[in-house]
Amino acid sequence: MPDLLIELFSEEIPARMQAKAAADLKRLVTDGLVEAGLTYASAGAFSTPRRLVLSVEELTAESRPVREERKGPRTDAPAAALEGFLRSTGLTKDQLEVRDDKKAQVYFAVVEKPGRKADAIVAEVLEGVIRNFPWPKSMRWGAGSLRWVRPLQSILCLMVDEAGARVVPVEVDGIAAGNTTEGHRFMGAGRFAVSSFEDYRLKLSRARVVLDAAEREAQIWQAATNMAFAAGLEVVEDRGLLAEVAGLVEWPVVLMGPIGEEFMGLPAEVLQTSMKEHQKFFSVRNPKTGRIERFITVANIEAADGGAAILTGNQKVLRARLSDARFFWENDLRVAKAGMGEWAEGLRAVTFHNKLGSQAERIERIAALAREIAPLVGADAGLAEQAARVGKLDLRSAMVGEFPELQGVMGRYYALAAGMPAAVADAARDHYAPLGPSDAVPVEPVSVAVALADKIDTLTGFWAIDEKPTGSKDPFALRRAALGVIRLVLVNGVRASLAAVFAKAYPGADGADLIAFFHDRLKVFLKDQGIRHDVIDACLAMPGNDDLTLLVKRAQALQAFLASDDGTNLLQGFKRANNILSQAEAKDGVEYSFGADPKFAESDAERALFNALDVAEQAIGPAMRAEDFAAAMGAMAQLRAPIDAFFTAVQINTENQVVRRNRLNLLHRIRAICSGVADLTKVDG
Amino acid sequence: MTDSAPLPRSFQEIILRLQAYWGAKGCAVLQPYDMEVGAGTFHPATTLRALGPNAWAAAYVQPSRRPTDGRYGENPNRLQHYYQYQVIIKPSPPDLQDLYLGSLRAIGLDPMLHDIRFVEDDWESPTLGAWGLGWEVWCDGMEVSQFTYFQQVGGHDCRPVSGELTYGLERLAMYVLGIDHVMEMPFNDPQSPIPLTYGDIFRQTEEEYSRHNFDGATTEMLFQHFKDAEAECERLLAFDPEDPKAAKSIVMAHPAYDQCIKASHLFNLLDARGVISVTERQAYIGRVRALAKKCADAFVTTAAGGGAGGGAVA
Q1: What was the pLDDT predicted at A514?
Q2: How far is the C-alpha of A257 from the C-alpha of A281, rounded, in Å?
Q3: Span B206-224, average pLDDT
Q4: Which of A418, A456, B60, B117 is the most buried (most CB within 10 A)?
């Protein structure tokens, strides 16, 4: 069975697009081959800055023949029906078969499709894939009309079997597939022919190209960490940067250089961000001091001078960049030490949203709200208000203007420079958190207060002006803000009614609707933590459901309870009781909540249930008051055996109406006790 | 080992080598456009000639003005007046990257000794209604050129596509010559009887124009000139193509485009004077773009633009 090798060789593909493009190539080609009736054993895709590569192993040499039968019109149908059938099958009348079908004679078309050679299928599929490739952005070049991410220069398409390698005849807009490629732009030595994937890979590596991006990443990381280690330093890990850099080189050469002593006073984050953003450098840190002392750059060439000229050049560019950064830093510090009044003033002129006012107005609101929230999270109200006031002033600083991702980080430095307390400075940095689902959640009370106030102001504000997220559209990242509030509340065990907090935030928001939105986000969040959907619903139906800490505590206890044998069986007992009771209530048009009387009990099982319910109620009441859901459910679990025994021994709907009513009232007690913990009717099973 | 030319000794030698190189590669070596522009792309040899089906190959130095970048000659690499080297070839040849790398060798940058990289950078000019895909070219981590395949200019799809190369000459030359401050760069050969540095020629003008751009220029006049240029551009394009005197069709695409260039530079000056607010900014850019589009519409009706209208091109 032949192997297939495809290389699409082009001018430099943007680093950020390479991995997905390789995956797309694999998916689209293999899907196309399978759809055309071929099968294969395995396939692998690779990318470098100049090529997308697909290797398919053990492809079937031809597709299976296919026999297709289609039923047509009856022989006595109008002529138009037959014509239509002939058109759709592409056959002539004498090619049709006539068969008996029930009471009539019917035309049948039998189309035999012979198997096709894999080469022809590959040619067809590849051309289609090239012409319709899902690049995020593509272009034309020269006088052609083909679109590719950058000019496509050559196509290599080989079928390799025992007889050797043959070129699959594909031609796309004048580019005919061949069996040749080229290596590294500068270190390779012209075009060369290849005869298999192994041969291709080997010759590429001789021509100074590492085909596999993961291998390039590993090489870079290993060389970088070794180099840093030898100097008693460590590389600051950055996976995104590593992937990007591996997409900028075909032959990584790692070089390390010093950062000028005059820049050592800059905050580590500034050095790191400037080097990464502008030059795609890794930062190298002194593990003892935490200072960034060197940079690592990854070149694409083994220079004759060992990279000396390259390092000198990079250092020079770095010096210019860091001079800018130092200029920003020094100017910003001057403003910070003067109390940041200039920035506060400047934020009056910056619109946050045209219906929600300026940044300055927003800060006022957050400060007022942070004051309200402070006691709920154990923070000093004065400090929380102060932190909210200074937390966003760095948005006007020159450094954040240059590097928006340093917002907050710079705020902390400037707050410290202005002589503010550490808790205030930390809140300036941390109040944006958590940003992503895996981002750390602040735990310092002042930070928590400001972080909550910031997000709740945003949510209530956008709710008030009716700019809620719809479908995939969430331009103001309100889902992220809500998830942030949820995590802040849960991690810190904050006990508060959201409705009460919303009422103190931006006026005019529909609090009930916003809480429903929170509940949706909470369901997604808890589902990721393995808590069942129906369990959450059962707890959401209980009062106080805008106290998220309480809600989650209840859900966790219920989930654990239902996972136990007692829990599952009790649930069955509850459902049985509830069903019988609901049916009787519907039928009789009354509610059986009268209070069952043990004196009408006829059997031991019935009497035992009365006793068990008394005991359970006595235990559950205090447990619920203490919000000890586990204890309450534990007490509830004790009802399992008596309920089971009761249902085994007793017929509810007896002839004696007094006894029947009493038993229904007894079922009501079961329902009432269980429903006090969660709405078990919402639980599946 | 090395296959690149010996290192040049002056700014002008770099320019001369680029001129010689691209001339030898078949480009018409043009002279700068005689108007104030923000970048080499504004030269009609690029903006207008990128439109229409006719083949084209040109290279030229273009003095460029960015009034807001003035630093009184003090910043080591920021200038309000600087030079760009511009190459435009239509249709873009298949070996344009290799041709470009040849030009780096010609000015003494050896790709076997330096780290040359093509890093994604999509180019867009909101004032010209133009965009393209390409790269910024890095040499040892420094951006030395912009490399773009034009996809659209003046709102028109480019067919065929032009390949455009823009070299920031001062920055590139400082790198090649190993100079830290632009004003210290030798303009002519340092061994000349009268050696001149970049600063000898431009330090004073940078000071004068910085003051002019930030404080001197009369804003009321600039606003008026902007309106005049806009009106004139539209008026020229509104003429009946048929010229009664010459008894043939003459569309005044280039004179109208001159007015568009003027409007663009006036906007840049007003911006430097700090009299255009954030919200007005977009509106002004939109007005210049509207002019550029109208000029492009007019140009493609002319012979040079591949249209049926008048023009001297065969």
Answers
A1: 96
A2: 10
A3: 93
A4: A456
Give the position of tokens 């043939």.
Answer: B248
| A406 CA: distance to closest CA in chain B (Å) | 23
Among the listed residues A50, A28, A32, A40, the one whose alpha carbon sits nearest the alpha carbon of residue A3: A40
Q: Name the closest residue on chain B to residue A303, using Cα atoms.
A: B113
**How high is the pLDDT of residue A161?**
94
Instruction: Extract the tokens encoding A386.
Output: 């102060």
Domains of chain B: 11-212 (3.30.930.10), 218-299 (1.20.58.180)
Q: Please tell me which of the candidates A12, A303, A316 has its beta carbon nearest to residue B135.
A: A12
- Predicted pLDDT of residue B314: 41
The reply to whether residue B140 touches residue A310, judged by beta carbons under 8 angstroms, is yes
| A299/B111 Cβ within 8 A | no
Residue B172 CA to residue A54 CA, distance in Å, equals 39
Give chain B's end-to-end CA distance (angstroms, integer).
48
Span A25-42, pLDDT tens digits: 999 999 999 999 999 999
On whether the CB atoms of residues A235 and A284 are closer than 8 A, the answer is: yes
pLDDT in the model for residue A591: 85
- Give B3-59 pLDDT, tens digit per residue: 678 899 999 999 999 999 999 999 999 999 999 999 999 999 999 999 999 999 999
Question: Nearest Cβ partner of A320 from B77, B120, B161?
Answer: B77
Residue of chain A whose alpha carbon sits nearest to that of B143: A317
Q: Kindly list the distances between the CA atom of residue B121 and the CA atoms of A16, A318, A384, B15, B147, in Å, as whole numbers in the listed order.
A: 12, 20, 43, 25, 8
> Nearest-CA neighbor of A160 among A4, A369, A317, A333?
A4
Question: Which residues on A lie below 8 Å from B146 (Cβ)?
Answer: none
Q: Are strands A164-167 and A152-161 parallel, antiparallel or unpaired?
A: antiparallel
* Amino acid found at A571: L
**A300–B115: do the CB atoms touch at under 8 Å?**
yes
pLDDT band at B75 (very low <50, low <70, confident <90, very high): confident
CATH class belonging to A344-529: mainly alpha
**B161–A142 CB contact, under 8 Å:** yes
The 3-class SS string of A326-379 reads: HHHHHHHHHHHHCCCHHHHHHHHHCEEECCCEEHHHHHHHHHHHHHHHHHHHCC
A63-67, A403-407, B167-171: range with highest mean pLDDT: B167-171
CATH superfamily of A561-682: Isoleucyl-tRNA Synthetase; Domain 1 (1.10.730.10)
- Global pTM value: 0.80
DSSP string computed for A32-86: HHHHTT---SEEEEEEETTEEEEEEES--SBPPPEEEEEEEEETTS-HHHHHHHH
Which tokens hold the place of A594?
A: 């009268």
Q: How confident is the model at residue A239 (pLDDT cuts 50, 70, 90)?
A: very high
Residues of chain B with Cβ-Cβ distance to A186 below 8 Å are 111-112, 116
Q: Across residues B191-217, what is the average pLDDT?
A: 95
Q: How far apart are CA B238 and CA B240, in angstroms?
A: 7
- For chain A, the domains span 3-62+117-206, 66-113, 213-325, 344-529, 561-682
Rounded CA separation A458/A210 (Å): 48
Using H for helix, E for strand and C for coil, what is the string for A477-545? CHHHHHHHHHHHHHHCCCCCCHHHHHHHCCCCCCHHHHHHHHHHHHHHHHHHCCCCHHHHHHHHCCCCC
Q: Do A139 and B149 touch (CB under 8 A)?
A: yes
